[in-house]
Specification:
This protein is mainly β and about 130 residues long. The chain is built from one helix and eight strands.
Length: about 130
Amino acid sequence: MEASAEYPAVRLPEGSWWDWEVLDWDPVRLRLAAGHDLTYHHGLELVFHEPAYAACPAAFHDPVFRAPTVREAESAARWLGGRPPVLAAFDAEANGPEPVPCLIAAERLEIRHGIVLRHGAAGEGRPT
């Protein structure tokens, strides 16, 4: 499949980003958390500001970020009535027999790198 030149693949900082889950999702933001084990903390967040479209599992593993295909970019533009500023595509394991293709359209993407403690621990909520 031909990749869209308009949208490059999301580039993650170095790290062990195997385990992923959706932390928050509302009209203002879609926040994904990643780490090697999400039980007590995570070390990476992808925050999609003003998400207009999202197709991804609530929890997934080992995503491979890639440029969206031309077809995905054209479909998103048609669904949304125009080309979104951010269009992130990836394929991830979601406990099925093959990777799931995922697509997120938003106004802006913020990549936060740093430890965030979970489940009511001190420092919860923002990377340090």
